[in-house]
Structures
1.
Amino acid sequence: MFRRLNRSALVAVIFIGIILIWAAEDMPAYGDPKAPANEYAAQMYIDRTPGDIGIDNIVTAILASYRGFDTLGEVVVILTAGISVLLLMRRGEGQ
Amino acid sequence: MENLLAFIATRYIYIMTIILMMIGLYALIAKKNLVKKVIGLNIFQTAIFLFYISFSDVDGGTAPIFLPDGVSATYVNPIPHVLILTAIVVGLAITAVALAIVVGIYEEYQVTGEDGLQEVMKRQ
Amino acid sequence: MRENVVIRTVCRLFVPFIQLFALYVIVHGASGPGGGFQGGVIFATSFILLLIAFGLPCVRGRFGRSWIRAYAACGIIIFAGVGLTCILFSGNFLEYAAIETALGIPHLQTLMIDIVEAGIGITVMAVMTSIILDFVGKEEEEPL
């Protein structure tokens, strides 16, 4: 297995890994409730969902109601992928 | 030494996802077969999803679904879950189209590695 | 050749239960974990299981190409249609509260969210099935 190891790729990957782990020292601790990611909008969504929408699943409420426009774009992306595969697989026949 | 242990105890999740990212990156750069490169892309993507969702955890929190009335609890941050749901489906679309391109290349030139592909490009 | 019988019988028994579970996940998207994307993919898995166990002619006989494409377009028409209906009731695009205040029926938002999730599930199911059928069907039509 070590015959076909690509030396320069391995060196580059280890170098990038060490730099990233060194940069992880500045990130907040795992599970910190005062981290910046948990501060601004999360508590507002949790507080306002029972009054505005009234369903139990907060993730579905955000996905389908508060940010429903993004979900519409998402479904268009899936449709585009289906159409692209259809077009790519038909190059040989029926030209 | 205690500093190193404290660092690993509070930030172990970042180290694990970075190792997974590097495995995926190595498979993307160093392998010659095109299908293996696509699989490396998938591994890299999965590591990024884990890294992003690890931001949403809160100590002692439970899943962001409301418990029945009368029970109060802290809920984890629901926003990264929503964004990653979209990203997973986009990743699936990318994999499907990439594999369709690989199959098309194989049928046209009977080549399934990157050196064969470079020969074909030199010939044309 | 004996193993074929075991695989075929087990897959034939499993497929309805997988589809029932997929419908359960789609419908319970509002009150538990789940939703449109997850249920759609599970539904497509049942078709892939049929494809693996029984081969292409059986599945191609049941799901022609034009039907799958029609289903994919149907799902997104349902989603966009709900959004445009909210404009008819003098609200913004995809503002479900406008229909609720105009008609006066309580808890209408839950129904709208369920309809939208069903539309997403239909599209995801149709596109997954179409992708797999394109990949497998291409191999069998090549006379190489």
2.
Amino acid sequence: MTDESKYALNVHDLTVAYDFKPVLWDIHLQVPEGVLMAIVGPNGAGKSTLIKAILGIQKKIAGTVEIFGKPYEKMRKEVAYVPQKGTVDWDFPTTAFDVVKMGTYGELGWFRRPSKKQKIAALEALEKVGMLPFKNRQISQLSGGQQQRIFLARALVQNASIYIMDEPFQGVDATTEIAIINILKELRSSGKTLVVVHHDLQTIPEYFDWVTFLNVKKIATGPIKEIFNDENLAKTYGINYKVTINK
Amino acid sequence: MDIFEYISLIFTDYTIRNISLGTGALGAICGVLGSFAVLRKESLLGDAISHAALPGIVLAFMITQAKDNYVLLIGAIISGLIGTLLISGIVTNTRLKKDAALGIVLSVFFGFGMLLLTFIQKNPDATQAGLDKYLFGQAATLMENDVKLLSIVLGLSLLVLLMFWKELKVALFDSDYAKSIGIKTRFLDSLISFFIVLAIVLGLQTVGVVLMSAMLLAPAAAARQWTNRLYVMLIIAAILGVISGVVGTAVSTTYNNLSTGPVIVVIAILIVIISFLFSPKRGLLMRQILFIRSRKKIEQTKVLLLMYNIAKTHDDVGHPHSNKILNNFQGIGKNVLKSLENQGWIKVNEGMWLMTEKGFNYAEELNKGITL
């Protein structure tokens, strides 16, 4: 028996179903602290569902989620979530700065308003993602890449230990993609754990050091160097997926 | 009665003061809560709830035989809430989408309500109770107690907003994220839905089942046009709601035969139209003006650059050329040449044009910027 608390994220026996069809089946997943992990799998593999089930947004049929060996509910503040950009209405009447400030709400709890300390933290996060000059923009007047950076900044403000992101590179240009991956690598260097749903198989060996293959069931999880190979890709995607890996 | 006489009556006449205060408070409640309905994309929820309230009113009367407004309002709240629960039940348990669920609940409840209403029309007590006033509303029946009740509900909803402001805001914008930081979004949803039901039921007496949803949507939709901040939107919506209520009451009282509810709604809709046309950032008119301006600007730039490319091949920049040269490249209207001349960049004379030095220099700068 290994020491369970050494894992940043420990998912046990997780099963989720919509209607009658299981979307996730018996997922066991252990993520060590300090890795930058990609979750890959075809459309409908349950990647977003897995993330939402971990975060308690999606109801589970069975299973437990532990953060550093403790139940998720007690460790909520250690986890920051970056949802898919397309899930919100960007015409909502609010500014970039306001959205980033939402990152401080979890720490504040009920009834308390962001004070100077929280505002400074939000400004720093904006600075970090290069969005400080746009802080007073209405969010619909931001480009797709800028909106993604705002979402990232909101998670950064939470100052969590684990970052869980749903396709942060979707629909962003090359500049933003590089800016975001640099921030993610920086977070990893400072000991944070990152779990990222990712679609572009070509960039996985370059961006990540850990990977989970998912298609309703967990196919494999581990270091890129050991398990990112044609065999696992074929098992996950059901076709012969040849990818050049720069080792 | 003219409008000045009316204004003095607001302060002196008991009935008119009650009606004005009541419709004003109702407008404020609807403006604030309607903003949530609009931003949650549940604009039609108000319509469904107000129609769903009708059978509750009639049943409450049939059971208690009471003519008391409050008993009927409790009936309305209960059947309004049942309607709301049914809508979310249909959405979660069937493959029907929200619009279909709203339509089903609206028509089934309203149909049932109308059925009961015609059934009890034979009963003379029912006619006395004036149940049909709930169809189109009758502001004249607003009493001091109604005004008190409306003010209490207004105060309560503002209190709830202040208490849960940041939670409501993040849940409204991004409910998945809100859940991830531990905010009870279902509780907040139910809270807001409850207050929306309450606002609608209170509005039935004044505006009626049929027009109530306009009261909820119009101030919010108009307010959205004037601001990009949530709290400002709520404040503007409340103010526009008050204006609709008070002005609508004034107009309907001044022109004796107009019934108040419809006039209030017409005023609210007028405010919506004005907002959609004239608001500076999102208004259709301003956007059209900006669009035409920028298109003209692009057209001018293109022509000027074309001229620049022709002129720079000559030693003398101001050498005259035929307008036909331009037309050979692209169809160029006389308006463009005229506006370029007005800016002093070119001179036009008898089918010929020449570039001024000022125009040449300006085009040179433009060219650098564009070819960069």
